[in-house]
Amino acid sequence: MYLLDTDVLSLTNTATGFSTEAVEAWRSWVKDNQHGLFLSVVTIMEVRFGIEKCFVKGATRKADKLSKWLASAEALHRNRIIPVSIEIAHKAGEILYRAVASGMEPSSEAPLSSRQPK
């Protein structure tokens, strides 16, 4: 069993145009081992956050491609997407607050606020 984080999952997106020998080997490994690969709902949230940022910036074509890719990833892993418990969500919120309060800018901070027009 392997839990794929957002960056690692993103390497499976062939629409990025990013291709090296190592990336192609990774994509092949993912295809061969897909039944032992899991996603977290947090990964889904992070990718959706990126899609929303694309829409706000006017990159609708990119956002549409990413949306289709995310939908296919969800379908592929549909029985292997790990939810987050209430306890984990509370702890994550505490950690996120401490990170922001210390001056860090996590990419998933306040995803809904980034969608508001200025």
Walk across the major sheet and give the strand order. 1-2-3
Please give the radius of gyration in angstroms: 16 Å
Largest sheet: 3 strands, parallel
- Counting helices, strands and paired strands, the structural category is mainly alpha
What do the pLDDT scores average to? Answer: 85
Helix content: 55-70%
Low-confidence stretches: 108-118
* Shape verdict: globular
Write the H/E string, N to C. Answer: EHHEHHEH
Please characterize this protein's 3D structure.
- The chain has a three-stranded parallel sheet.
- It has five helices and three strands; from the N terminus they run βααβααβα.
- With 118 residues, the protein is mainly alpha-helical.
- The N and C termini lie far apart (43 Å).
- The protein has a domain of 82 residues.
- The C terminus is likely disordered.
Labels describing this entry:
118 residues; mainly alpha; 3-stranded parallel sheet; 5 helices; 58% helix; 7% strand; disordered C terminus
Secondary structure elements and their pairing?
Blueprint lengths: L1 E2 L2 H5 L10 H13 L3 E4 H17 L2 H17 L4 E2 L3 H16 L17
Parallel strand pairs: 1-2, 2-3
Helix pairs in contact: 3-4
